[in-house]
Amino acid sequence: MSTNDDDALLDAWQRGDAVAFDELTRRHYTSIRRFFDLRVPAAADDLTQQTFLGALEAVSRFRRESSFRTFLFGIAHKQLLRTLRDQRPRVERFGSEESRTSLSVVAVRQQEHQLLLMALAQLPLELQLVTELYYWENLRTAEIGEALSLNPSTVASRLARARELLGEHITQMTRPGPLRDRLLGDLEQFSRALGPVTAAANARAARDLT
Percent of the chain having pLDDT more than 90? Predict the structure, then answer.
């Protein structure tokens, strides 16, 4: 997805072209909704809408020092933190009971991906966020720092810690053998592949419910 295309749509929108904002929403809706769906699925639709409404209200202050996607994830992150504060202690993170139910609906089919999702669910929220934005949304460490209000070096250290913990959790959940070896041997590749897999699985689940 081209940042230049987003910039052109932003220019058109700021000139009064409402269709341009509809196209920006269409481009980024799936990523923003998944950001919420894995943690607060019951509120995912409302929070996604609030994120795009927040973008409408704040776009005049968007200086384009980062991408529009980074700008959106920054708004989404603030929405998520407000929601989690309101819902604690019932919802603490992606590994909460509500989110585990969402994962069962997603029904990711490949065993390696199922295990990786289970391992990801055991990470603290701050490690989950940087992991997903880096591997699933392909944001750079500087962009993640912008979205989450973190120093890029903090993002890098959290990514390193997340990879370490994912490896530990996978080791605990699997027996010695080919499955464990595949996951630990190419953890980064499986982590990157999980983004499109969960997006496709969520789309299937949504179709099944209609």
Answer: 47
CA angle 75, 195, 146 (to 5 degrees): 30
The CATH number assigned to the domain with range 3-209 reads: 1.20.140.160
The pTM of the full predicted model, rounded to 2 decimals, is 0.79
Which helix (H) or strand (E) covers residue 174, if one does?
none
Contact 38, 103 (CB under 8 A): yes
The tokens of 43 are what?
């509120």
Q: Distance between CA atoms of 133 and 8, rounded to whole angstroms? A: 24
Instruction: Name the residue with tokens 């390696």.
Output: 112
Cβ distance 61 to 14 under 8 Å? no
Sign of the four-CA dihedral 25, 37, 118, 203: negative
> Hey, how many other C-beta atoms are within 10 angstroms of the C-beta on 110?
12
> 77 CB contacts (<8 Å, ≥6 apart)?
129, 147, 148, 149
Instruction: Using pLDDT thresholds of 50, 70 and 90, give the confidence band for residue 85.
Output: confident
Here the tokens at position 125 are: 């929220």
Specify the residue for token string 């496709």: 200
Mean pLDDT of the chain: 82
